[in-house]
What does this fold into?
Amino acid sequence: MNRIALGLAALGRPAYINLGREGALPPARDVESMRAATFEVLDDAYAAGVRHVDVARSYGRSEEFLAGWLAERGHADVEVSSKWGYAYVGEWRLDAEVHEVKEHSAARFAAQWAETLALLGERVGLYQVHSLTVDSPLFTDEPLVEALAELAANGVAVGFSTSGPRQADAIERAFALEVAGRPVFSAVQSTWNLLEPSAGRALGAAHAAGNRVLVKETLANGRLAVEAPAAVREIAAAHGTGPDAVAVAAVLGQDWADRAVIGPASPAQLAANLRATTLALSAEERGALADLAEDPQEYWRHRSSLQWD
It folds into this structure.
């Protein structure tokens, strides 16, 4: 369980792009119902031994929900990571035309770090740039880079998440950033799953260099649970488990992956995901799963077509 992180992307707001969410969430997705659902999943994750929770400013009220849960339960041993760069603008509506807006600027960082601090304070051990791409203005924004370096110097690990078909390029460029001869970033959170493993080599190099590696979208936004390829379903059936557990186990099988971030929408989904921690895939099974990789451009094109619901 020490390699599992619980992500709250699917619980901190009423709409998201994960498949398989609708039947798992409360019938009413008002704030209080979603707060209660979040607390229930957090309670079960903690009871199972999970001690890392990943949130973001753009995940609706995820930071607020997590802060409330930590205050009520009094758990002092939970590691918290969050992200800045996207602002949630969905106004708690399922039918919002736009749910989040991205901006990598020194002003956005300063504002969102203050918001995160107000809710979670010193509980945040890792603060990440949300969805850094190789063409992000961050790379040429000297005041922003210096502000991130200052945060790192003050004891908060600074990292970044990546998205898109050029994740590997973004990873390499970001870890090359330095201020006063010291690296700015010490952690990365990237998409890696059975359908989109193209960042694997760059993540392995980052881990070998001493950086922390978190893997997100382990289920490909639910595709590997709801629309799993035949090979995944067959291996799951052979182990008496679900396809989601096989997908998460494939991530845990990468020795460079320090954390696999899962994003269940209910206790039942959480329990199904966590079966991965006791699932050992054979070499033959790993070989069969390696054949499922899609062209990165096609994968990300498909992801961008997913509807918020």
User: Anything to note?
Assistant: The chain has a mean pLDDT of 97. The CA atoms of residues 204 and 256 lie 5 Å apart.
